[in-house]
């Protein structure tokens, strides 16, 4: 008899996502109360353009716009954990928040930036665990069941690996819940935020899930919750114990059956991989470990072929991308990834090869390599990418490209230089 692997489903949610992305640009704001909301205002323009000779991370904290100076009807999209201590959070009006935490720094939303990081962290996940369902800009479900290591410590080991890979590549943190299904995983990812991992097994239902409010079940909104409360049902445990006939009377046969199953932690829904690819990649494991300098001709040829294959994949499927990444696995099984973002979307092998070479220059190459991979991320359907280029190609993006291309400081001749 063969034992089927336990179904292990993860829900991963980024911590204070928009705010954390802003802190990558403005690390001087780390630890401070920061809220993100509203469009760009004059104060934000002044901040960015105040002194063009200095980098964003050099802007003194004292120059940032504060919540106390805000007037208008904008709402908070998110707040750093330091700001949440004052009771401010998502969906609250900025003026109301200003009363609770006037000293918070207020930054405008920059969706393009959040989308970029969203694609990036998702590409890292699918590199490690390919069955991933997109749930929005900052959350995904991942099927750990068949992934090597996905069963270890109930999924904790793989969750830790993914957290680490995302942090090393982006500087962003996330929280992960691993459970027998999506329903429980979604609840579990909140248990230890931020930077948390929570593992829930079937036998934890009573202790970990039943004390929670019914609202924690994804699918029970404020209206259903109010009706449950009216019946004296506040916790998931109470919902589990409720008479099915009573629930059916108030919610109808379908919903009541679902409520009953959910309260017992039952959910069979599949992890749906998205139809829109986040990235495309090709990789090769070598027959014997290769050295970046001594085997550079062989490695250079493989590298070029991988770029050609990814380019062909992109062209065949009709996508273009602008974040070109390399993945290395060393003789000791460590993995390193490096990205290089170029000014314009591409599906061309030579452009990919050039950018991948730049990414590779920043990777440690002192050890023998077992595996080499090339990835193109930040994908758009080719038609959209072309339209975007026609409409918005600016001096700015051309400059970015030049800057990157002139950055070819040569050291030891590595295969990236071939
Ligand atoms: N968001 C928004 N408006 C809301 C809620 C969220 O614009 N009412 C945006 C901003 C968040 C992002 O979506 O950064 C992700 O939402 P989350 O609920 O996951 O919140 P955070 O990631 O900010 O914080 P947490 O650490 O609690 O997940
Ligand atoms: Mg989040």
How many helices? The count is 15
Q: From the 3D coordinates, which CATH architecture of the largest domain would you assign?
A: 2-Layer Sandwich
Order of strands across the main sheet? 5-6-1-7-8
Count of the separate structural domains: 4
Shape: globular
Q: How big is the Rg? A: 24 Å
- Enumerate the spans where pLDDT stays under 50 for 5 or more consecutive residues: 392-411
CATH class division of the largest domain? Alpha Beta
Query: What is the count of β-strands?
Result: 13
State the CATH superfamily name of the largest domain. Answer: DNA polymerase, Y-family, little finger domain
Q: What sequence of helices (H) and strands (E) makes up the elements?
A: EHEHEHHEHEEHEHEHHHHEHEEHEEHH
Instruction: From the 3D structure, determine the CATH topology of the largest domain.
Output: Dna Ligase, domain 1
| Proportion in helices | 25-40%
Ligand names: 2'-deoxycytidine-5'-triphosphate, magnesium ion
**Share of residues in strands:** 15-25%
Structural class assignment: alpha+beta
Largest sheet: 5 strands, mixed
Overall pLDDT confidence: 91
Distance between the termini: 53 Å
Describe the fold and architecture.
It is built from 15 helices and 13 strands. It is an alpha+beta fold and 418 residues long. The chain has 4 domains: 9-15 and 113-204, Reverse transcriptase/Diguanylate cyclase domain (Alpha-Beta Plaits); 17-109, 3-Layer(aba) Sandwich (MutS, DNA mismatch repair protein, domain I), CATH 3.40.1170.60; 212-263, 5' to 3' exonuclease, C-terminal subdomain (DNA polymerase, domain 1); 279-417, Dna Ligase, domain 1 (2-Layer Sandwich), CATH 3.30.1490.100. It is globular, with a radius of gyration of 24 Å. The N and C termini lie far apart (53 Å). Mean pLDDT is 91; it is low at 392-411. The site of magnesium ion (MG) has 4 residues, from β1.
């Amino acid at each position: 008899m063969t034992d089927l692997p336990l179904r292990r489903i993860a829900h991963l949610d980024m911590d204070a996502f928009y705010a954390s992305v802003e802190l990558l640009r403005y690390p001087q704001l780390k630890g401070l109360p920061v809220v993100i909301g509203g469009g760009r205002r004059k104060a934000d323009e002044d901040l960015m353009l105040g002194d063009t000779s200095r980098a964003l991370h050099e802007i003194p904290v004292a120059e940032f716009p504060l919540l106390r100076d805000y007037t208008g009807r904008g709402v908070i999209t998110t707040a750093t954990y330091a700001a949440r201590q004052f009771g401010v959070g998502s969906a609250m009006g900025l003026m109301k928040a200003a009363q609770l935490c006037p000293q918070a720094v207020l930054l405008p939303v920059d969706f393009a930036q959040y989308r970029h990081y969203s694609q990036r962290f998702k590409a890292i996940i699918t590199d490690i665990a390919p069955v991933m369902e997109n749930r929005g800009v900052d959350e995904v479900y991942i099927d750990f069941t068949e992934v090597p290591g996905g069963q270890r410590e109930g999924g904790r080991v793989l969750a830790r690996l993914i957290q680490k890979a995302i942090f090393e590549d982006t500087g962003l943190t996330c929280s992960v819940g691993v459970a027998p299904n999506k329903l429980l995983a979604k609840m579990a990812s909140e248990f230890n935020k931020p930077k948390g991992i929570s593992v829930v097994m079937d036998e934890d239902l009573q202790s970990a899930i039943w004390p929670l409010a019914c609202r924690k079940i994804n699918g029970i909104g404020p209206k259903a919750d109010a009706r449950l409360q009216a019946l004296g049902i506040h916790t998931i445990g109470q919902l589990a114990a409720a008479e099915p006939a009573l629930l059916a009377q108030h919610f109808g046969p379908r919903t009541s059956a679902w409520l009953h199953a959910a309260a017992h932690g039952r959910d069979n829904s599949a992890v749906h991989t998205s139809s829109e690819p986040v990235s495309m990649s090709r990789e090769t494991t070598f027959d014997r470990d290769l050295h970046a300098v001594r085997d550079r001709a062989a490695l250079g040829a493989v590298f070029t072929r991988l770029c050609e294959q990814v380019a062909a994949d992109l062209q065949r499927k009709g996508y273009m991308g602008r974040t070109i990444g390399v993945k290395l696995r060393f003789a000791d099984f460590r993995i390193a990834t490096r990205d290089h973002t170029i000014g314009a979307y591409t599906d061309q092998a030579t452009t990919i090869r050039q950018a991948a070479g730049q990414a590779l220059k920043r990777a440690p190459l002192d050890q023998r390599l077992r595996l080499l991979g090339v990835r193109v991320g930040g994908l758009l359907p080719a038609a959209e990418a072309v339209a975007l280029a026609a409409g918005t190609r600016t001096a700015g993006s051309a400059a970015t490209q030049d800057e990157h291309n002139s950055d070819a400081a040569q050291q030891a001749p590595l295969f990236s230089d071939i």
